[in-house]
Amino acid sequence: MGDTMWKCDQVRAGQLYNRVLFDTREEALEFVQKMQRMEPDQTFSVEAIDARQVWN
Questions:
Q1: Residues 50, 55: Cα–Cα separation, whole Å
Q2: Which of 13, 16, 44, 47 has the highest CB neighbour number within 10 Å of its CB?
Q3: Is there a contact between 1 and 21 (Cβ–Cβ < 8 Å)?
Q4: What backbone phi and psi angles, to 5 degrees, belong to 37?
């Protein structure tokens, strides 16, 4: 694992529905593509975060 992780937030009706962390941007974007086909009413955002924010 590197110094960067990727956070994917799923939002429905303005509320955070789910948050998933990924090791790579590609994994996060693949997840978003699959979820958008299954859950078109959700909004997704993918953002890079410092891994130290997640792990001590």
A1: 9
A2: 44
A3: no
A4: -70, -35
Measured from the Cβ of residue 22, the count of other Cβ atoms closer than 10 Å reads 17
Domain count, the chain: 1
pTM above 0.85, yes or no: no
Domain that includes residue 10, residue range: 4-53
| pLDDT tens profile 7-35 | 999 988 889 999 999 999 999 999 999 99
How far lies 45's CA from each of 8, 9, 35, 56, in Å? 6, 5, 12, 24
Sign for the CA dihedral angle at 10, 12, 14, 17 comes to: negative
- How far lies 3's CA from each of 52, 53, 55, in Å? 7, 10, 10
